[in-house]
Amino acid sequence: MTGHHEEEVPARGSAGGDLHPAQGFAEGFAGSLTPGLRPAVLVVDMMRAYYDPDSPFCLPSDDSVRAATQVLEAARSVGVPVLHTVVRYGPGGLDGGLFLRKVPALRLLIGEAVLGQPMPQVAPLSTEPVVVKQYASAFFGTTLASTLHSLGVDTVVIVGVSTSGCIRASAVDALQHGFVPLVVREAVGDREPAVHDASLYDLQAKYAEVVSLATATAYLAAHAPQGQPPE
After folding, report:
1. Looking at 166, 182, 187, 213, which residue is catalytic?
2. Does residue 178 belong to any structural domain of this protein?
């Protein structure tokens, strides 16, 4: 992607509460990625499976949903694109390959399962694309990258679950596809707080910018799409 300009978000360690490079990162890690002018929000797998107490995937809190709702409100209010992912498998789960062997609970997401439905608070609007995926990354085996490129997107604001799995994998692949990943700390979640914190630490060190909810919403509010995507 060429022809776009970049604009800084508040520095890590600011009042926004973003992670700071001085927090134990080895020398040579935690460089800075500067977000661009054409963001999109990616809502990763915010399905009932992660918030239903009877689900093996259930998280200890729904705080991530409440925070993600604020991110979506900020994006939608200025026309920033919002895209969603859900996990769904075909008959017998054959398209899940070895992943279903490693995580047998994923068989609960075969077909149009109730647990695969988006949470109502962050449900897609009729105009928002929904990417159906079978593996951890939102990019693997999907059309997500080409859709983002066609929209002229240069920065992906990531919310969803779980931090150590699909959020991490999607942030890594966003970077590898040339998008600046911004992971919103309060709007992602995991089953174990220690795993959540370690994943955010490592994402900041090597793959993404981990930003606060306040930083993310302010950034989105300031970046309403202008004209057509750059050629």
Report:
1. 166
2. yes
Question: What does the alpha-carbon distance between residue 10 and residue 166 come to, in Å, rounded to a whole number?
Answer: 26
Q: Is 81 left (phi over 0), alpha (psi -120 to 50) or beta?
A: beta
Residue positions counted in the chain: 231
Amino acid in the structure at residue 173:
D
Q: Is the pTM of this model over 0.90?
A: no
User: Can you tell me the distance from the alpha carbon of 198 to that of 89, in angstroms, rounded to the nearest whole number?
Assistant: 30
pLDDT per residue as tens digits for the range 188-205: 999 999 999 999 999 999
Provide the domain limits for residue 66: 39-221
CATH code, domain carrying 214: 3.40.50.850
Tokens of 110: 């075969």
Q: Do 96 and 89 contact (CB within 8 A), yes or no?
A: yes
The model's pLDDT over 105-114, given as tens digits with 9 standing for 90+, comes to 999 999 999 9
Whether 166 sits among the annotated catalytic residues: the reply is yes
Tell the burial category of 163 from Cβ atoms under 10 Å away from its Cβ (0-12, 13-18, 19+): buried
